[in-house]
Amino acid sequence: MATDTAGRAAHRVSGILLNDRQRMAWLRLIRSDNVGPATFRDLINHCGTAENALAMLPELSARGGARRAIRIASKEEAERELAQARRLGARFVGIGEPDYPPALRQIDGAPPLLAIRGAPETVVRPSIGVVGARNASIVGTKFAAMIARDCGRAGYTITSGLARGIDTAAHRAGIESGTIAVLAGGLDRPYPPENVDLLDAIIDGGGAAVSEMPFGWEPRARDFPRRNRLIAGIPLGTVVIEAAERSGSLITARLASEFGRLVFAVPGSPLDPRSHGTNGLLKQGAIVTTGAKDVLEALAPISQLDLFSAQTSAREPERPASPAPPPDEDDRATILSALGPTPVDIDDIIRHTGIAAAAVYLILLELDLAGRLLRHPGGRVSLSLDV
Fold first, then answer.
1. Under a CB-based contact definition with an 8 Å cutoff, are residues 74 and 28 in contact?
2. Residue 322: pLDDT band with limits 50, 70, 90
3. How many alpha carbons lie under 13 Å from residue 371 in its C-beta half-sphere?
4. What is the pTM (predicted TM-score) of this model?
5. What is the pLDDT of residue 2?
6. Coil, strand or helix: which one is 2?
7. Gap between the Cα atoms of 320 and 322, Å rounded
8. Do residues 339 and 64 make contact, with C-beta atoms less than 8 angstroms apart?
């Protein structure tokens, strides 16, 4: 392996392994209706274990006003997906386990369960994201390859989205040192099709592919922003090369900034539409990047931080507590009247209603499972008008 100035190439993360029964329950829970990462975390906190949560889903959703029974993923469905993973040489890793990407643990709404194919040591090393235009120029792809090679030689893995253009160039150049491909669909549904061979080369070269989506899931347009969240969350910083305005790469850059990660932008010609987004990032304070040295110097202090011992609230306790009693109906009505279509902070709900925080969180969980609550960035919530 190349010189490890990142200082973490051989480091293995501590954590608590899920047993087979727990992993099955976690998979069933996250694949059930109306259960996203934040809801999963709240269910574990309230119910103690994923098994308890599965048993309580019907009651909780009914208390939230669900009009029909909530769909709960069956054991048979979970067993089929686990078998698909084994056939592909993949595995499901929980957020508290050693092989979960350590920096990703830190973000709000991190996937509780991640499907990973490839080398486990690759996903726990410090990483740098490289993203940009699909219709990249020759100069852009060359620069992406240079950044990926030089950062790889310094001990970082390269994280990108397997897309055409900049992503492809970064992945190819990062194969020797290790690269992580984040997929918008299931691990068995890589996109675009012409990069299937590249994905195989990444895996064969000691890299990895990750996805939070179910096996068999064909990626849709709305799945790519969700994928971009992982691309922004896995690395310590993200380099943007040739990104048009309103592009997916700018979504990744915005998310990286929200996560407290460094954002690097490569300046380009103001006459090239592919550089309008990156030049805009520079105006907003992104780090001017003309070579890997700019990235490595900025990330050097961050790469030494101990992201690897972080705990997660989604970890199952050794002795699960008994679930709290149902909230008072008057409290439920008060919170419903306080909510509307405009997102608000949960702390504001607590202050406005005067209801105990535990009761507020439980009522919001019930509404969420009933499909009546929308969650927004920053932990804000609003009432769904579609129900």
1. yes
2. low
3. 11
4. 0.90
5. 40
6. coil
7. 7
8. no
pLDDT digits (tens, 9 = 90+) for 169-204: 999 999 999 999 999 999 999 999 999 999 999 999
The label of the residue with tokens 């919001």 reads: 364
The residue type at 40: F
Residue with tokens 């100069």: 139
pLDDT, averaged across the chain: 91
pLDDT of 7 > 90? The answer is no
Contacts of 356 (CB under 8 A, 6+ apart): 350
Q: Which of 91, 51, 79, 102 is nearest to 317 (CA)?
A: 51
Long-range contacts, 271-275 (Cβ 8 Å, 24+): 272/137, 272/242, 273/244, 273/245, 274/133, 274/135, 274/136, 274/137, 274/140, 274/242, 274/243, 274/244, 275/242, 275/243
Q: Does position 214 have pLDDT exceeding 70, yes or no? A: yes
> Beta partners for 264?
239, 287
Q: What is the DSSP string of 269-286?
A: -TT-GGGHHHHHHHHTTP
pLDDT beyond 60 at 317 = no
Percent of residues, the chain, with pLDDT higher than 70: 91
- For the chain, which domains are there? 20-90 (no CATH), 115-303 (3.40.50.450), 329-383 (1.10.10.10)
Amino acid type, 266: V
Question: Which whole-number Å values give the CA distances from 32 to 27, 28, 164, 185, in the listed order?
Answer: 9, 6, 33, 17
- The pLDDT of residue 15: 72
Cα distances (angstroms) measured from residue 104 to each of 80, 179, 209, 229, 311: 27, 16, 15, 10, 12
